[in-house]
Amino acid sequence: LASFIDSDECSMTSDLIRKGIDVHTILYPRNQKSIIGKISSGIRNSVAMFNYLKGKEPFFFAKYKRKNMENLISTLVNQNRFDLVQVEYNVMHHYTKQIEKIPSVIVFHDISTKVYERGMISHESTNKKSFEIAKKLEPEIGNKFDAVITLTNEDKLYLTNLGCETNIHVIPPQINFPDIDKISKIPNSICFVGSFNREPNLQALEILLDEIMPRVKNNNPEIILKIAGKYLPERLIKKADRTEGVTYHGFVKNIDAFVASSALFVAPIFIGAGLKMKLTHSLACGTPVLTTPIGAEGINIGSENGLWIETLPLDLSEKCFELMKNETELEKAGFRGKEEVNRLFSPQSVKEKLNVLYG
Q: Gene3D superfamilies under this entry (predicted)?
């Protein structure tokens, strides 16, 4: 395994090494908050920003082109006889030259072009520029590889329509079910979990705070919202603190228990792409989910099994209030959702799909 790593992710590599995986990492600090860190990041990413401004790559892609990663992969290839290389994430396409003589597969965890296209509804010029660049780049990336994996059928169709001619396989990520005892639900509690360095999660939380919670609490003042996740901007921390019935918990180590103790996971996701792992994880914890059509992409589970879909914030608010009126039925739906997620995303189910691809 060759990977970029942030300074707070060292424990993850230790876990992998203990499992017998040969891990090689390149330090890549992200989300710097200190002045020195921001200056260092600006210097480090100056070439990436230049390439973005010249229209070569979206900045998010360009910043992962690193000479030390090129050298690491070249060394590993020269020292080993690999039968296959699996590349995770489209931003790692920069290293195809180092593996050009080895059969290779790339996993698109989402389609960035779709993310930028949906992000254009916010009228930000960066999304429009990145969309124009990415819609040409992403099919080219896919065509560099012997096979492509997407996590959803929706992403497969989108990438095909962009012009990717490589055979695309739809293989969702496996869900490892939480090893937790029966956890009592906190009455009247809804939750949202996300990494807040991603625009879809930031937008979803703002909709929760500005539009959904006020309407829901107007109908039932007892309902509370629990928020967990890293990198929440200070302005949203302050907004959460000012909003009645809302608590921001920051990074939560035992996220399984945090989600399992909630009556409902509400995710007003209106931009983004790919399969939203936070939602399948919630169902695996026995907590039903209320989300949008975009949030539910790739999760073929119906309302009878704990996944409700609404299109507008107003409809999400009304459905949330309606569902929270009967938490006993919600808990039963969460149990059925857990069984359905196990059927669709269990390690055995995913392994069968991978065996078809790798023969």
A: Glycogen Phosphorylase B
Closest CA to 249 of 270, 223, 273, 230: 230
Domains in the chain: ranges and CATH: 31-170 (3.40.50), 189-344 (3.40.50.2000)
Asked if residues 102 and 84 have their Cβ atoms less than 8 Å apart, the reply is yes
Question: Tokens 């390439």 identify what position?
Answer: 51
Q: Cα 21–22–25 angle (5° rounding)? A: 115
- Name the DSSP letter for residue 56: S
CB 35 within 8 A of CB 61: no
Euclidean distance between CA atoms 253 and 265, whole angstroms: 18
**pLDDT for 69-125, tens place per residue?**
999 999 999 999 999 999 999 999 999 999 999 999 999 999 999 999 998 876 667
CB–CB of 132/111 below 8 Å? no
141 neighbors 161 (Cβ within 8 angstroms): no
pTM: 0.90
Q: What is the dihedral of CA 293, 297, 299, 302, to 10 degrees?
A: 20
Tokens of 136: 């040409």
